[in-house]
Amino acid sequence: MTSTSARGMKIARRTFLVAAGVVGGGVLIGAGTVAVRLQALDGYRLPAADGETSFGAWLKLARDGRFEVVVPNEEMGQGIYSLAILLAAEGLGVGPEAGRAVPAPIHARFANPVVILDGLPFDPRADSAGKRAVIWTFEKILRAVGLQVTGGSSSTRNIAEPIRSCAMSARDMLVRAAAQRLGVSAATLWTEGGRVVAPDGKSATYGELADAAGQIEPRDVVLPPLGPGVYVGKGIQRPDCGPKARGLARYGIDTREPGQLYAAIRHAPRIGGALAHATIKAGLPGVRGIVEGSDYVAVVAGTFEAARSGLETADIAWDDSKALRLSSRDVLSAYRAALDKGTGYAPRWIIDSAGNTAGAAGRKVVATYQVPFLAHATMEPVNATALVTNATCKVWAGHQSGSLVRMIAASAANVPSDAVEVVTPYLGGGFGRRADVGYVAKAVEIARHFKGVPVQTIWTREEDLRDDVYRPAAMADVTATLDAAGLPTSLIYRVAVPSVTDQFIARVFPFAKGGLLADRTTVDGAIYPLYAVPNRSIENFTVDLGVPIGFWRSVGYSINAFFFESFIDELAAAAGVTPIAYRSQLLHAFGGSAASRRAQVLLDRLARFDADHPLAPGDTNVKVGRGIALTECFHSFVGHLADVEISGRDIRVRRVFAAVDCGFAIDPPNVVAQTRSAINFGLSAALFGRLDIEDGRVVQKNFDTYPVITLDTAPDILVDIVNSGADIGGVGEIGTPGIAPAVGNAIYAATGTRLRALPFGLSGA
């Protein structure tokens, strides 16, 4: 697995060629299907139009000196386009205003194995020959499969090194082209503002040199340490901010094609229900027809308003014979039963273990936590536009995987995959919701009834909440045994939660068999803990009652970090030690690992902020409290301090301080923005978020019953970036997991009441 590190390294010629797409990785594999597949990618280069020169798979240069960098990850607000421009500009030695980022073609060359490799059941801080061999093999296979996907805070980790190496190698090729043109040694030349300059003052622009440079054989170049540069480490203005602020950015829901029709869709009211039949009256104004699907009905019209009106008058009969009739309380009861059965329950996976938990003696601390189902509630409701003919299909949609969209659309349209064109506008929120692309299949199915005409299918907010794939509800029993000093000698962590990965794979590949391996994603945040617990058992009880679940911003971390960091606070209280000091004791007991050292730096930042900004007492009848959480998420570390005010039963988060270590912050302003965004996202869940099911029906309908943080309820958020020099980690999701436990711990500090369930609610006045 390639690693983008702060350490300097020499990029061999072949490494650049592979990264640039000039040479595939087949010879590294040897023989077999994977080798053949990788070798088929050997000659891939970006298509170049007139006036452009392709420098492999990632970069093109135009005659006017402007460059274009392709990005295989979707821009869904995480700023990956600006980061790609920043890295390419730094490597080329030109201003970022000379560049633009565009979506990469859907091609195996742009696979993202990082997001899947992160899910392998290995301790990220341990190393072994076996682990390296498995990761190396999986990476080659995944690159051969060629799945393009955006998620898991993996975008930067996936593209940073190839873009850096391609840009720097292209710069070297431009210098050598200038040396040939000017008749001097390349060693005497330097670059400046998009020109190659000679000692006598003669120069040539990149645009003038591009054609000749593109014909030069790449050679070994030195990739400098990933650290502060002209642009790297400072950041640039995001190119999408201006259009978004002025309302000019185009999202999927903004698609407008000649002759376009609109579809309003309604799904079976019970989860798992089916459509029996549906009819509409003839002659409805603007209505063009009705489409009956397996679990939905859609009315198609010349405007969305006409389609919705037609749907309201439709006569619909649903088939509930296979629908779920359970309620949220039934799910929690099933979790409780599984945890009570303990080792006798199956499937039960031991994800992480050490020592002997059965032999621990001492004071016991026991707690049970739970969280509800959550919807994604993206600001842009789910939608997709499709144009289907007898031989082709074109899709306009925000999504998190062009590869999956093309595959799903081809199946729904009954055309070959290479006959599907995918247009990807900005995403009005992803959060994992748009990794599940079943909505694209439905949009294509509907458009297939109106061949040759583009049809846009829009989920209303009610349908968006009803037809979501939810963050799973979960319940955990946690037990620790404390020694005389109050430190844990034993930890048993048992969480009942279904497998997100199994359900996701079953939706994409219906014939795939799940349940063969433990799903690490649902226990992330509890496994491989930062803190020293010599005897531990981290167990997952996979209880799946059929409620559709999917990836949600930070996935299992959003569940287990709340459970785990709340429990650490409970241990601190039991030991009579302050929460910060107690965590410091645990980190020191870990034995000085790199992870514990990074975490300790953040803890020190939190302690300093705590000392420098003492919590002011509240007004009369207002209680105040400060809470802490320390989390590791997607190879990054975050410390949270949250200040809360409580008046009666009203909980208000006033201020959050977050210390962030993502290795090296390539684009610091965006790291701050993403951390703030993720904190507010997590606060919505902590204070308000719950998706209830009653008799198989989703209770919440819109933002009046599924509220989110608003400007007037959002806290002040301060973000402190720590550049540790470690390998770069993720950013987009890392602020979410720690905010719920920090707030819960602050509520305990203010009231003495420990809240072990989300969303938080106080019963007394």
Largest sheet: 7 strands, mixed
Mean pLDDT: 91
CATH superfamily membership of the largest domain:
Aldehyde oxidase/xanthine dehydrogenase, molybdopterin binding domain
| CATH fold-type name of the largest domain | Aldehyde Oxidoreductase, domain 4
Tally of individual domains: 3
CATH class assignment of the largest domain: Alpha Beta
Describe this entry's structure for a reader.
It is a single chain. By secondary structure, this protein is an alpha+beta fold. It folds into 3 domains: 9-245, Aldehyde Oxidoreductase, domain 4 (2-Layer Sandwich); 252-322 and 382-458, Aldehyde oxidase/xanthine dehydrogenase, molybdopterin binding domain (Aldehyde Oxidoreductase, domain 4); 329-374 and 470-751, Aldehyde oxidase/xanthine dehydrogenase, molybdopterin binding domain (Aldehyde Oxidoreductase, domain 4, 2-Layer Sandwich), CATH 3.30.365. It is 31% helix and 22% strand. It is built from 20 helices and 29 strands. The strands form 8 sheets. A 7-stranded mixed β-sheet has the order 12-13-10-20-17-18-19. A 5-stranded mixed β-sheet has the order 15-23-22-21-16. The N and C termini lie far apart (55 Å).
Blueprint (SSEs and pairs):
Blueprint: E1 9-11, H1 13-20, H2 26-29, H3 33-39, E2 52-54, E3 59-62, E4 67-71, H4 80-92, E5 99-103, H5 114-117, H6 129-145, H7 155-182, E6 190-192, E7 195-197, E8 203-205, H8 206-214, E9 221-223, H9 241-245, E10 261-267, E11 274-279, E12 287-292, E13 296-301, H10 304-312, E14 315-319, H11 328-341, E15 348-354, E16 363-371, E17 383-388, E18 393-396, H12 402-413, E19 420-423, H13 438-447, E20 455-458, H14 461-466, E21 474-482, E22 488-496, H15 500-508, E23 535-541, H16 556-575, H17 579-589, H18 594-612, E24 623-633, E25 636-647, E26 650-661, H19 668-687, E27 693-694, E28 697-698, E29 716-721, H20 739-751
Parallel strand pairs: 4-5, 10-20, 18-19, 22-23, 26-29
Antiparallel strand pairs: 1-9, 2-3, 3-4, 6-7, 7-8, 10-13, 11-14, 12-13, 15-23, 16-21, 17-18, 17-20, 21-22, 24-25, 25-26, 27-28
Helix pairs in contact: 1-7, 3-6, 4-7, 7-8, 12-13, 16-20, 17-18
